[in-house]
C-alpha cells in the first residue's frame, strides 16, 4: 500500500534556460497566454504574483477535462533555477491527494537546456491513481512555452 509517490520527466528545450526560468520566476501570469491547456489563472488571495503568501486560482485541461486548483509558491531558488509549487484547495486535488507539489527545475547544460518537472504527491488512499495525466500536461505545456520563447514572440499583457 504505497500512498506517497514521485513522478519526474526531463525535457530538452531550445530556448535559453534563463529565459524559460524567468517566465516562471517573474512573469507567471503570462503562462496562461502561451499554453492551450491553461484556460486561465488569477490571483485568488494576495497582491503579488510571485509572493509566497499569494494564492493563485488555475483553470486547466488534463485528459480532456477542465480542472481547477489553488496554488502557492512554496520555495524559490534562483541560483539553481528551481521553484516548488503547492497545489490544493479544490475537489480535483483535495479529494485525491493529501499533498501535491510541482517542482520546476531548469537546467543549463551548456549548448542546450532542459526542463525537469517533478510531481511529489501523497494519495488519500490506495484507490487513487498516480497523477500520470499531469506529466502529459506538463510536457505539452513545456513544448508550447518553449515554442513561443524560441520564436521570440512577445507575451501579451
TrEMBL record:
Name of this protein: MLP-like protein
PANTHER family (UniProt xref): POLYKETIDE CYCLASE/DEHYDRASE AND LIPID TRANSPORT SUPERFAMILY PROTEIN, POLYKETIDE CYCLASE_DEHYDRASE AND LIPID TRANSPORT SUPERFAMILY PROTEIN
Organism domain of life: Eukaryota
Homology family: Belongs to the MLP family.
Alphabetical list of InterPro entries matching this protein: Bet_v_I/MLP, MLP-like, START-like_dom_sf
GO biological process: defense response
Domain annotation Bet v I/Major latex protein: ranges: 2-152
Pfam families: Bet_v_1
Species of the source: Trifolium pratense (Red clover)
Amino acid at each position: 500500500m504505497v500512498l506517497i509517490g514521485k513522478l519526474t520527466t526531463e525535457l530538452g528545450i531550445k530556448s535559453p534556460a534563463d529565459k524559460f526560468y524567468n517566465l516562471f520566476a517573474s512573469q507567471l501570469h503570462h503562462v496562461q497566454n502561451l499554453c492551450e491547456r491553461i484556460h486561465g489563472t488569477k490571483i485568488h488571495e494576495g497582491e503579488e504574483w510571485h509572493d509566497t503568501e499569494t494564492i493563485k486560482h488555475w483553470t486547466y485541461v488534463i485528459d480532456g477535462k477542465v480542472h481547477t486548483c489553488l496554488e502557492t509558491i512554496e520555495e524559490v531558488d534562483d541560483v539553481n533555477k528551481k521553484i516548488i509549487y503547492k497545489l490544493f484547495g479544490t475537489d480535483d486535488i483535495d479529494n485525491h491527494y493529501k499533498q501535491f507539489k510541482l517542482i520546476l527545475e531548469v537546467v543549463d547544460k551548456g549548448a542546450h537546456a532542459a526542463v525537469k518537472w517533478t510531481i511529489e504527491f501523497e494519495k488519500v488512499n490506495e484507490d487513487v491513481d498516480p497523477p500520470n495525466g499531469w506529466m502529459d500536461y506538463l510536457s505539452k505545456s513545456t513544448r508550447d512555452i518553449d515554442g513561443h520563447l524560441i520564436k521570440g514572440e512577445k507575451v501579451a499583457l
